[in-house]
Design a protein that fits this description.
Structural class: mainly beta
Number of strands: 10
Order of helices and strands: EEEEEEEEEE
Shape: globular
Distance between the termini: 40 Å
Strand content: over 45%
Number of helices: 0
Oligomer: single chain
Helix content: under 10%
Largest sheet: 6 strands, mixed
């Protein structure tokens, strides 16, 4: 079983950058396609970006060109580089395997707040 811990959130001004990390325990992390998700207040959780075990990536239209997902399998860590942040990026960000069901376990996530 893989346990995940998100970190790197914060409060920033619009236009700033943040780098989120997702540290995984367990040696099978490299086998999973992973994803970053976010949930803004009053909204449903949405997929932000996904990455396969081999590094193939996919992004939500709202973050294309601004966010970059990556992973370091040797370090059991996944990252989300977020540039040109906008107030609408304000949310709690989570990491989990790709296509993770809503009724499965979700950690605490990391809060990202972007002010205008």
């Amino acid at each position: 079983q893989v346990q995940l811990m998100e970190a790197g959130g914060g409060s920033v001004q619009a236009g700033a950058s943040l780098r989120l990390s997702c540290a995984a325990s367990g040696s099978i992390f490299s086998m999973y396609a992973m994803g970053w998700y976010r949930q803004a207040p009053g909204k449903q959780r949405e997929v932000v970006a996904t990455i396969t075990s081999g590094g193939r990536t996919n992004y939500a239209d709202s973050v294309k060109g601004r966010f970059t997902i990556s992973r370091d399998n040797a370090k059991n860590t996944m990252y989300l580089q977020m540039n040109s942040l906008k107030p609408e990026d304000t949310a709690v960000y989570y990491c989990n395997p790709r296509n993770w069901p809503d009724d499965h376990y979700w950690g605490q996530g990391t809060q990202v707040t972007v002010s205008s």
